[in-house]
Amino acid sequence: xxxxxxxxxxxxxxxxxxxxxxxxxxxxxxxxxxxxxxxxxxxxxxxxxxxxxxxxxxxxxxxxxxxxxxxxxxxxxxxxxxxxxxxxxxxxxxxxxxxxxxxxxxxxxxx
Length: 111
What we know:
This protein is mainly α. It has one domain: Up-down Bundle (Four Helix Bundle (Hemerythrin (Met), subunit A)). It has four helices and no strands. Helix 1 packs antiparallel against helix 2. The longest helix is centred in the middle third of the chain and has 34 residues, at 44-77.
């Protein structure tokens, strides 16, 4: 038997979920709505560019948040930690690094 402590994947996923929600909130895409820009700001092209960048990042964060929610669902139904393509158990080191992953390393590169 190993002396290494068991990894709490639920805790890893919940921590990631909190971090993503915090980042969305910082971008102004949390529950409070979007970022507010000064309408009198002289460089409207800069504001437009920043809004676009914040929007793209928010979409990526929301996708990651959805992946975390799906991983938490897999924890509940017992399918967590197995590749969605081949069913093989995902290596623990991969799950620790990417707790929301859906694929083993072989299929991650193909997806």
